[in-house]
Automatic annotation (TrEMBL), chain A:
This is NADH-quinone oxidoreductase subunit M. NCBIfam families: NDH_I_M, PRK05846.1-4. Its main location: membrane. It comes from Streptomyces aidingensis. The keyword RNA-binding does not apply. Residues 141-451 form the NADH:quinone oxidoreductase/Mrp antiporter transmembrane domain. GO terms for molecular function: NADH dehydrogenase (ubiquinone) activity; NADH dehydrogenase activity; ubiquinone binding. One of its GO terms (cellular component) is endomembrane system. The keyword tRNA-binding does not apply. Pfam families: Proton_antipo_M.
From TrEMBL, chain B:
This is NADH-quinone oxidoreductase subunit N. The chain crosses the membrane at residues 23-44, 56-76, 96-116, 151-172, 178-199, 211-235, 266-291, 303-324, 336-355, 362-383, 389-410, 431-449, 469-495, 507-529. Belongs to the complex I subunit 2 family. It comes from Streptomyces aidingensis. PANTHER family: NADH DEHYDROGENASE (PTHR22773). It is found in: Cell membrane; Endomembrane system; Membrane. NDH-1 is composed of 14 different subunits. Subunits NuoA, H, J, K, L, M, N constitute the membrane sector of the complex.
Length: 533, 552
């Protein structure tokens, strides 16, 4: 039996979490280095996955399959297609930066008198690694039940990250902040738990249908189900398929998040520390959009086509609504949260446009958005940690005293608004092209999102970085070496992905073609476009 | 029929026939009841100083032996191919019975550890004290009690009481005759009523709980007994197989004395409903749940843990056997009723729990909601339904025991600090304990990788398989509601600042530590690798039924 590379990729951070948590209370620096080391090992393993993966090969590669709970028909089945490889790589790459950026974020809690036994620093990094392990597992799981388990279980460490380690720079006094924080954590958990439980009903329903139809009894194996679907062995009644689709989609839409079930995200991102906010939006939320591609479209193609009009409208509302609300925010972390909602609208639009450009674009968008938001949010976090305020109005003239900080903020911001030459431009362009070729009106509406993005990013930059040097900016220190080490590679990556996205598209495109054939859709021929004119 | 005077007396034609008793097959129950009787003798004859140790050793040995006996029987295929009706048609020895008896023996064994814990409160007059009043009938803190404490009196009779209750519980799901069912119910209930009244702290609450439990329990028993009488009138027999045969439309010869009533459907429906009511009371399903919160809150916490875990196991076992063996012919009548009861239990339990401020009451309402979840599996009427309910019961009972064991450890000078506000910040003071409690709460909430999730999934899958998708949807919605209050407790423990003068966590003896540890391990093992236990429950999912021809 070959080396279980995928399992190792998920086990490494999990093991890291356990080791980090076990570091004695006084050795908090050792805990940080331990966490960083394990996250780097994970990067190495993810790189190995990337290298071993053959873009033109089988649909799912590096597969592992073992019986787990035979009674439920559950198997421990892992496998990656091009999309999953890209997502695993994104996760593995982002996390070390988060650890670097959050190096001192939990220390203040450690200094509290009651904290000796509680060990916040160790806990903070252990929880981040735990989330990483679960996210990686859910990207690799090709068994619906296995996926569901990690999809749900990752809520618990995240919940503790949001509620236990807040941003101290809120606009409220300390006691009020604690309330806000636990409100945000509970809101996050209840939204996602509700979505997950609805999905559980659909998962059970799927099993029941499969147990009736398949000769081998009930199964959750994605490959078996999709193949049975294609061969006609497994058939859903029309209404059953729609209900099951809705159960899955509801959970993913909450996680993604899609308007109108997005409201937990601004709270969660606003109240958590910058690295945790990045973890949520850049990594965890991607599980939602990823799962739409893999499970909604793969298992319920007809229902997906049926639901497309509604989903497209919701995605468009997300794009415009998120952008408008971002414009109106006073708190820069909430601004970035609403901007993310707008971007998730683009991703979902790309997925449900049902064209290969749209879906490739959506996949690239997941990667690019992850990197861009990470860069922007982390720099914003550095800024906030200097002044102790999240309010945009408290800043001004920072570019004169801290030029590096302002410069990186600008580049990250420009990437967020999809400036050509940065990664997000490629993906946004692909999504729009893909959408336009099938739904021209939707494409036009989506374009307003681009204009609004330029507005909220540039206004944010203008109000914080330019203008006369305020009292707060006068004493501002520029980026420290640790902070530079975090931001520079992210920005380099953004520009690389913008200039030379081919390696990524080569990996992603075959997987997208598989998904397209699952749904039974082909790209509209140019002639069809001609006819529409 | 001659009217001779001599006909008043007839001579025995043959030697009296003594029923054949399969002693070996009944050994688990017999061991426990025998030890209980022995425990009474210990109370009478062993010197006071030595009683605690003697009772503890006796109880542990007895329960361990009972568990071993269950294992031996299970290995001997008594659960599957060798299943039999023992004791002249009175007791079934089959898969579900053995599985539940095994669970019950383990639960009772673990509960003994909780009962025996003597390090939670500071010693009084130089003598260690446990959770039970030395002189329960005396005025709390009055001279009689002072004297009792100084003399070192202990209520060591809690151990035989626990054994008696366990014995009753072990017969309850195995009963194959309505009268045996009733006797088992009384044998398990009476010791519990007494145990409820014995709390050393907050005596009035405890006595109130006992009175409520007793009165409502007596009421439920009366219902059950009346139902039994009506069913007898209907079928002319108390044996499960015979009643099932009559319902199935193959009445053996009519009993002339009952000719007027036999086969009367009104008797069957009313009698069946009343018997069901009596069992649903013990299960704690809405609308027969009223006693649960008060009794859970008032009873000494070790007793609450034992009661919550074991009573539910026993009562669901009896309910399953009654529905699957006696009343399958009435399925179309009881199924809609149980649908209603299950939905009410899930929703009411979850919703009312939101408003609770006492951790024991919170767990009580949560247990009501869990009854609803298990009922969803019961309603499935399939081998999957039985095995999923069995698995759920095993998983649930250990989580419950663990949770109540944790509750005994969080104390302030007034005793256990059960008010939720006092749990604020516990996670910062005692991260390990709060972490374990959080694990139990997550298991109650059914989060993946805990036993609660595996159980819930099994039950819902069985229900969905049987076409009860509506129940699954309601169950999922109730789970979402329930998650809210479990999470609230976790928020309180981890994200709130500790209150000054709040409770402290006492360092218990290895007894309680082992209970909490075992419960946590079981919770994780059943969550991560449930396959073996699912198999076990799957093999145990078939009830034995007496052939109608031999039924009496």
């Amino acid at each position: 039996m070959s080396f279980p590379l995928l399992t190792a990729t998920a086990v490494a951070p999990a093991l890291g979490a356990v080791v980090t948590a076990a570091v004695p209370s006084a050795r908090r620096t050792a805990a940080k280095w331990t966490a960083l080391a394990f996250s780097l090992i994970t990067v190495g393993l993810a790189a190995a996955v990337l290298i071993r993966f053959e873009p033109g090969g089988d649909r799912y590669q590096l597969t592992e399959s073992h019986s787990w709970i035979a009674d439920f028909g559950v198997r421990y089945e892992l496998g990656v297609d091009g999309i999953a490889v890209a997502m695993v790589a994104l996760t593995a790459v982002i996390v070390p930066f988060l650890i670097g950026a959050g190096w001192n974020d939990a220390d203040h809690a450690q200094d509290a008198p009651a904290a000796r036994r509680w060990r916040p620093t160790q806990g903070f990094f252990a929880l981040i690694l735990m989330v990483e392990a679960m996210v990686v597992m859910s990207f690799m799981a090709t068994d619906v039940f296995l996926f569901y388990i990690f999809f749900e279980a990752m809520l618990i460490p995240l919940y503790f990250l949001i509620g236990g380690f807040g941003d101290r720079a809120g606009e409220h006094p300390e006691s009020e902040q604690a309330k806000q924080r636990s409100y945000a954590a509970v809101k996050f958990l209840l939204y996602n738990l509700a979505g997950g439980l609805v999905m559980l009903a659909a998962v059970i329903g799927l099993y029941v249908v499969a147990a009736d139809d398949l000769a081998g009894g009930g199964t959750f194996s994605l490959q078996t189900l999709v193949e049975a679907r294609a061969s006609g062995e497994l058939t859903f009644a029309e209404s059953t398929e729609r209900w099951l689709f809705l159960g899955f989609f509801f959970a993913f839409a909450i996680k993604a998040p899609l308007w109108p079930v997005h409201t937990w995200l601004p709270n969660a991102m606003g109240e958590s520390t910058a690295p945790v906010a990045v973890l949520i939006t850049a990594v965890v939320d991607k599980v939602g959009t990823f799962a739409m591609l893999r499970f909604c479209l793969g298992l319920f193609p007809e229902a997906s086509v049926w639901a497309t009009p509604v989903v497209l409208v919701l995605a468009l509302v997300s794009i415009v609504y998120g952008a408008l609300l971002a414009l109106g925010q006073r708190d820069m972390k909430r601004l970035i949260a609403y901007a993310s909602i707008s971007h998730f609208g683009f991703i979902i639009l790309g997925i449900f446009a049902m064209t290969s450009q749209g879906q490739s674009g959506a996949t690239l968008y997941m990667i690019n958005h992850g990197v861009a938001t990470a860069a922007l949010m982390l720099v914003a976090g550095f800024l906030i940690s200097r002044r102790g305020s999240r309010l945009i109005g408290d800043y001004g003239g920072v570019q004169k005293t801290a030029p590096l900080l302002a410069g990186t903020f600008l580049v990250a911001g420009l990437a967020t608004l999809s400036l050509p030459g940065t990664g997000p431009f490629v993906s946004e362009f692909l999504v729009l092209v893909g959408t336009f070729s099938r739904y021209p009106v939707a494409g036009i509406v989506a374009c307003t999102g681009i204009v609004l993005a330029a507005l909220y990013v540039l206004i944010l930059y203008q109000r914080t970085m330019t203008g006369p040097v305020t009292e707060a900016a006068g004493k501002m220190r520029d980026l420290r070496p640790r902070e530079l080490a975090v931001v520079t590679p992210l920005i380099a990556l953004l520009i690389f992905l913008g200039v030379f996205p081919k390696p990524l598209t080569d990996i992603v495109n075959p997987a997208v073609n598989h998904t397209m054939s699952d749904v039974g859709k082909t790209d509209p021929a140019p002639a069809e476009l001609e006819a529409r004119k | 029929m001659s009217s001779d005077v001599s006909s008043l007396v007839t001579l025995a034609q043959t030697e009296p026939v003594f029923p054949e008793i399969q002693w070996a097959a009944l050994s688990p129950t017999l061991i426990v009841l025998g030890a209980a009787t022995l425990g009474i003798l210990v109370e009478a004859f062993v010197p006071r100083r030595a009683r605690y140790a003697t009772q503890l050793v006796l109880s542990v040995l007895a329960l361990a032996a009972a568990f071993s006996a269950v294992i031996v029987l299970a290995v001997g295929d008594y659960g599957t191919s060798e299943a039999l009706i023992a004791g002249a048609g009175a007791i079934a020895v089959d898969g579900p019975a053995l599985f539940l008896q095994g669970v019950l023996a383990l639960v009772a064994l673990v509960s003994v550890f909780l009962f025996a814990e003597r390090r939670l409160d500071p010693a009084e007059h130089g003598r260690p004290v446990d959770s039970f009043a030395a002189q329960p009938a005396a005025l709390p803190g009055g001279p009689a009690e002072q004297q009792a404490v100084r003399a070192g009196w202990m209520t060591t009779d809690v151990f035989p009481l626990l054994l008696f209750a366990t014995g009753g519980m072990m017969i309850f799901p195995a009963a194959n005759d309505l009268l045996v069912l009733f006797i088992a119910l009384e044998v398990l209930s009476l010791p519990l009523y007494m145990l409820c009244a014995l709390a050393r702290r907050r005596r009035l609450l405890s006595q109130e709980a006992a009175v409520k439990y007793f009165l409502l329990g007596a009421f439920a028993s009366a219902f059950l007994l009346f139902g039994i009488a009506l069913l007898y009138g209907y079928a002319g027999s108390l044996g499960y197989a015979r009643i099932a045969a009559v319902i199935g439309g193959t009445p053996p010869e009519l009993d002339p004395a009952l000719a007027a009533t036999m086969g009367n459907d009104a008797l069957l429906l009313i009698g069946g409903a009343m018997v069901l009511m009596g069992l649903l009371f013990k299960v704690g399903a809405v609308p027969f749940h009223m006693w649960t919160p008060d009794v859970y809150q008032g009873a000494p916490t070790p007793v609450t843990g034992f009661m919550a875990a074991a009573t539910k196991v026993a009562a669901f076992g009896a309910l399953l056997r009654l529905l699957y063996v006696v009343l399958p012919g009435l399925r179309w009548d009881w199924e809609p009723v149980l649908w209603g009861v299950a939905i009410l239990s899930m929703v009411a339990g979850a919703v009312i729990a939101i408003t609770q401020t006492d951790v024991k009451r919170l767990l009580a309402y949560s247990s009501i909601a869990h009854s609803g979840f298990i009922l969803a599996g019961v309603i499935a009427v399939s081998p999957d339904g039985v095995s999923s309910a069995l698995f759920y019961l095993a998983a649930y009972s250990f989580v419950t025991l663990g949770a109540f064991a944790v509750v005994t450890l969080v104390r302030d000078p007034q005793g256990e600090a059960t008010h939720l506000s006092k749990w604020a910040g516990l996670g910062r003071r005692s991260p390990l304990l709060a972490g374990v409690f959080a694990l139990f709460l997550l298991a109650f909430a059914g989060i993946p990788l805990t036993s609660g999730f595996a159980g819930k999934f099994a039950v819902f899958r069985a229900a969905a398989d049987a076409g009860a998708m509506g129940l699954v949807v309601v169950g999922v919605a109730a789970s979402a509601i329930a998650a809210f209050f479990y999470v609230r407790v976790i928020v309180l423990m981890f994200f709130s600042d500790p209150q000054p003068g709040g409770p402290s966590v006492v360092i218990p003896s290895p007894l309680t530590v082992s209970v909490v540890g075992l419960a946590a391990v079981v919770t994780l093992v059943l969550g991560i690798a449930p396959q073996y236990f699912l198999d076990l429950a799957g093999q145990a999912g078939v009830f034995v039924q007496q052939a109608a021809a031999t039924a009496r």
